[in-house]
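subagent[fold] <- orchestrator: predict structure for attached chain, return tokens only, no commentary.
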Amino acid sequence: MDFEIDIKKDVLDRFLRYVQIDTQSDERSETYPSTARQHDLLNLLAEELRGLGVADVRKDEHGYVMATLPGNLPADHPGRVPAIGFLAHVDTSPDVSGTDVKPRIIERYEGGTIVLSEDQKIDPEEIPALKKVIGHTLVTTDGTTLLGADDKAGVAEIMTAVAVLQAHPGVRRGPVCIAFTPDEEIGHGTKHFSIERFGAKYAYTIDGGEGGSIQHETFSADSAEVVIKGRSQHPGYAKGKLVNAIKLAAELVGRLPRERLSPETTEGREGYVHPVRIEGMVEEAKVNFILRDFDDDQLAQHRELLTRLVAEVGALDPRAEVSISFSESYRNMRDKIREAPFTVEYAEEAIRRVGLQPFSDPVRGGTDGSRLTAQGLPTPNLFTGGYNYHSRREWADADEMVKAVQMIVELIGVWAERGEP
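subagent[fold] -> orchestrator:
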């Protein structure tokens, strides 16, 4: 279709506005959302949706912003066209600072290394994707914070797609459901999410990377916490009495495999056991892990490995109390998506319609769609044009962001044409 509004200006303006709002989540928080600052962006999105003329906009007590654009198909339209949903999360990773983000725009990237700061650069020899985007408009950080393209690129693209639909009321569509979620980065994005209130029968997260990518397979994920209780004693008189929980925690981490089962040494379909936080004092220390694999049986083996290592460390000093607890984070969406293959086929067609070649790669991570799919809402993941997530070297391709907006609109059209098989 022809787009009358300036999509590039609209999506880029929104993106630059959103990334400057600090929305980092906090895995140690006991509130929901985990940080109050996420409400700043969620409230703004609700206001902007209403400003676009969307009548049905809701923000609930958990922070979820939902909206519905009614369908406009005639009563005699052939086939069943269900409500289709699009989701993106507003929070950014707690791994790297998201405070005082200063985005930089590179017009018509000419190639070569991009220097962000004295100690941060984006080198195409390390990041080959840069070689594919020469001539594009790029957005980077200033090297001191992450950018927030994960997933504010997706947020901006959905919002611009809504603006396009509102500006083109004649575009044939079934009902379109929109949702913006908090706390995805800490695995809680759908903790209080109501699929019934959302209203969609099939959905897509706009939370991927390179232009053209569609993902319908993710890691299965668990988390683990190891608690080590030692015995404190004045160090001058500690012989035979002190049990140092810090040293036992270090011993546990040191026993992890070095050449396999770690993010630093794995790729493709290889899983890992990854310590993400260690804290404590002599008397008590805690080590938090995340466990990932595409195969649930392999994931169970990772649990067994960590349980065995914890037992070995506990046996080093019987006076110590060493315990481990596991919790499920999400599961691979692969099998459930296979029950609704048309969700992927329609997205592939929409990607082709905007001039890109669709390709699929497994997500070495998870999305809100992982849990939503497990709960009965098939939700593949689509590209945003963002790269180097969770890094001070994060960047986004504004030209691919335009393609993502167009893809969303085209995908709605494909559903209107083909309906539910």
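orchestrator: received. Logging for downstream: Residues 220-330 form a domain with the Alpha-Beta Plaits fold (CATH 3.30.70.360). The mean pLDDT is 95.
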